[in-house]
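Protocol step 4 of 6: structure prediction from sequence.
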Amino acid sequence: MSAHSDRLLKGILLVNAFLGLEKFKILYERLKKAADKRDMELDIMTNAAPELILPGGIDEIATDYDFCIFWDKDVRLGRCLERAGLRLFNEADAIALCDDKADTYLTLSAQYISQPLSVPLPFTYDNLGYEDVSFFDKTGELLGYPLVIKECCGSFGAQVYLAQDLSQAREILKKYGRRPLIAQRFIKEAAGRDLRLNMVGDKCVAAMMRINDNDFRANISNGGSGRAYKPTDEEVTLAKRCMEILHLDFAGVDILQSDEGPLLCEVNSNPQFVSTYECTGVDLGVEIMDHIMRELSS
């Protein structure tokens, strides 16, 4: 639905009903305040709302609202809302691509995006896992040690593991192999630090360098800290290309500074931007609202 000049834009902030951490509540409040600043109406709704579950409810909602900020990963619900005609920011398919690190890697590598060499690991069943992990021996030789093993779906660095040798890699595989995994070359010179470029549309609206002297993961939630950073043209171009390929409206694009130049680490479709605001003073929520207004009026 396109915007109408004679009335306020009305949208949904769709969030997960079962994610009650305080930092998410703060983020949702910031988005609502940003909408208020732009004279937009924004109603918070969860993915467990009866009207989104029971037959016919989604069609009614789609006629009542102009847009939906889909701050969740319930992509099946997102696709239902899109089929009913509601414009999602971000779109369901874009969220799905970002939520699975193997899909992200494969999609971007097909477009020659610079990334650490990675190997999606074989599919198994959650009631079986990996009994025999000998298949990993050649992968370890290719990537070298230490190497990183990531759960394909995870946030805040909590599902990312560092294997110093084959023995540790096998232990990780046996412990976490019931979940989809991807193995990745460890970029030693970038250990404990990365760049977070907050992208809205085709622009980098804020960036910070994240540093953790006590962990190979730079995430602030793991004890890291952030400082405002001015990205290079090459880093912005890399982030912009990822946005285009994945069809994202906004995202947090994480970049590693390697000896070979900037490498894409991850793309976050629902970036936790409170720390970015505290670090840079840029209100990503307002930037998102401005982007929505431009998109709906075009």
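Step 5 (inspection) to follow. The domain at 10-88 is CATH 3.40.50.2300 (Rossmann fold).
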